[in-house]
């Protein structure tokens, strides 16, 4: 991989696309050129990057000529259709959609956990689900130290996970509700203002929804072992950061102080708490921030080696765009 | 207890007080007289009940003369101070605050579960915490059938749990936020509009907050056995219904169909789900409704006898006022 690659962003006009642009700029990502790709509808639009306007181009099968890295965030069906063309053109695709994540030919990477998996890529590297990334950043260092036997997770997921339009709709619907006006939801399929609902991804035969199965299955793939995770995913009327309540059972004895120590020195993780005033990380605190924030560590009184933990991270950032950019940075080093 | 008692409501002007009035009216509760008690600040205010205006009286130690049943919902310190005076005057106090709940001299009652405990009251009967009531209504019938070994609960609690002023503040703060205006929180001690936070009740030495310990300890008292419950309580920007994600481990083997059957025939519980369209109970669906609604039953893939369950109930209604009125109804029967 060259030092200054030609990069393309697929889905440049979406919520994650915007964040990818911001991160490339902020992290001073070395670039020879940057191509912005979107649907025909958005083609021609201009987006400012490092002080220059870049014209959005239409995503086609021929548009990857000369591109070294594709950051793909335009939806699973478009990744399925276009990633092979990008690979054929010689690019490595960092795919932020769910399409290739469980493909045994495709590594699934969180740079703080399994950066070595990047090496066996065959042109596509998958970025895990947002809720998975946030959870495993805290789970992995604890697992290495104490052995995680089982994890029960309940999520509090923001509108951003459903895209920029869902965020807009939540704002508009809330404004309407406060005015006592009717509102017809078109992005989210049920009332969302001052409401919450079990995650609306498709439900499988076993009763879990896809979002939950992603957290459960992707964790095993990232950890290279059969991880026991069960999840309940819930969408809450929050703009862009996801929260998670984790109940973790360890194989081995531990102390709360040791668990704090492990998390304090874990890459990508920050302990965020103000115990004196009983204040802990909230979505508004961490929106726009890089790390996943943890706190409220306490011994589960119902188990010998149980830990309760609160976790909040920016879904658009480390949960999506940042992890993808970190993978791209590893590609440059590799 | 006479057939048509003289009833007094302590805290008649609060959120639960208003719901108590509505329920007495709606359930055609037999009354000889109704006294509305509140602080000096609210005394003199008129509240309509069954077509008549009742003047709110000031809560004093002498105001319970001739009262048979007091429905107390004015806060723990006022219950502590005034309940003994009410008992001395011959009344039975149904206390909706936390003050007497764990007192071994005071029964803690959910009428669907342990109505017999009313019989040994010495003048005070405690109404459990709202999150506890909602949880145990589903847990108890499952426990009787399959033996509940351990429960992990994460809550999604509405503003109503913090009172009518918190609900108003959430509305005002959300309106301000949508206008891009600054807002100073005075009821809730942190930003709440489009935000959520771990429950702000006082934190104990072991790291659990009081709200969580209530769910854990009260369950054991209501079930008359040592129940293993661990909870994480979270306040979400919802108006008045609480949701709970429950992960339950049974002693015995079960099938999902049997679990549904148990819950379908459980008093106070309704199965609410539309599996075809992937729609489940939400706070807006159940606000103002009596039952606790359950759904999304699925086998926890990480345990032999594990069950995942989604639960939503109106915090002000069954979580507080309705349970208290049901206790009063049992007193009339008894």
Radius of gyration of chain A: 20 Å
User: In CATH, what is the class of the largest domain in chain A?
Assistant: Alpha Beta
Q: Give the N-to-C terminal Cα separation of chain A.
A: 7 Å
**CATH architecture grouping of the largest domain in chain A:** 2-Layer Sandwich
Q: What count of structural domains of chain A?
A: 2
CATH topology of the largest domain in chain A: Dihydrodipicolinate Reductase, domain 2
Q: Output the number of helix runs of chain A.
A: 8
User: Strand percentage of chain A, roughly?
Assistant: 15-25%
The total beta strand count of chain A reads 18
Strand order of the main beta sheet of chain A, please? 5-2-1-6-7-8
Give me the secondary-structure category of chain A: alpha/beta
Order of helices and strands of chain A: EHEEEEEHEEHEHEHEEEHEEEHEEH
Average the pLDDT over all residues of chain A and give the rounded result: 97
Subunit structure (chains A, B): Homodimer.
EC number (chains A, B): 1.2.1.11
Pfam families (chains A, B): Semialdhyde_dh (PF01118), Semialdhyde_dhC (PF02774)
GO molecular function (chains A, B): aspartate-semialdehyde dehydrogenase activity; NAD binding; NADP binding; protein dimerization activity
């Amino acid at each position: 991989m060259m030092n200054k690659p030609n990069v393309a962003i697929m889905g440049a006009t979406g919520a994650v696309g915007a964040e990818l642009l911001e991160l490339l700029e902020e992290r001073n990502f070395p670039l020879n050129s940057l191509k912005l790709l979107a649907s025909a509808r958005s083609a021609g639009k201009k987006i400012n990057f490092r002080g220059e306007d870049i014209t959005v181009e239409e995503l086609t099968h021929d548009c990857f000529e000369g591109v070294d890295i594709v950051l793909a965030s335009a939806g699973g069906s478009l990744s399925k259709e276009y990633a092979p063309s990008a690979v054929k053109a010689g690019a490595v695709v960092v795919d932020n959609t769910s399409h290739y994540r469980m493909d045994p030919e495709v590594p699934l990477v969180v740079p703080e956990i399994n950066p070595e998996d990047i090496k066996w890529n065959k042109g596509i590297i998958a970025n895990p689900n947002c809720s998975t990334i946030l959870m495993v950043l805290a789970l992995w260092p604890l697992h290495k130290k104490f052995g995680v036997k089982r994890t029960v997770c309940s999520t509090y997921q923001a509108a951003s996970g459903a895209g920029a339009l869902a965020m807009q709709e939540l704002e508009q619907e809330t404004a309407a509700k406060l005015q006592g006006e009717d509102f017809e939801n078109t992005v989210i399929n049920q009332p969302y203002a001052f409401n919450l609902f079990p995650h609306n991804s498709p439900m499988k035969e076993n009763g879990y929804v896809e979002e939950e199965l992603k957290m459960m299955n992707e964790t095993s793939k990232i950890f290279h072992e059969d991880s026991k995770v069960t999840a309940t995913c819930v969408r809450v009327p929050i703009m862009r950061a996801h929260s998670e309540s984790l109940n973790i059972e360890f194989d081995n004895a531990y102390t709360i102080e040791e668990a704090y120590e492990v998390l304090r020195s874990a890459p990508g993780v920050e302990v965020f708490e103000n115990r004196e005033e009983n204040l802990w990380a909230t979505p508004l605190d961490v929106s726009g921030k890089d790390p996943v924030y943890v706190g409220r560590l306490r011994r589960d009184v119902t188990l010998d080696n149980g830990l309760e933990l609160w976790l909040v991270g920016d879904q658009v950032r480390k949960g999506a765009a940042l992890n993808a950019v970190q993978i791209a940075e590893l590609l440059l080093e590799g």
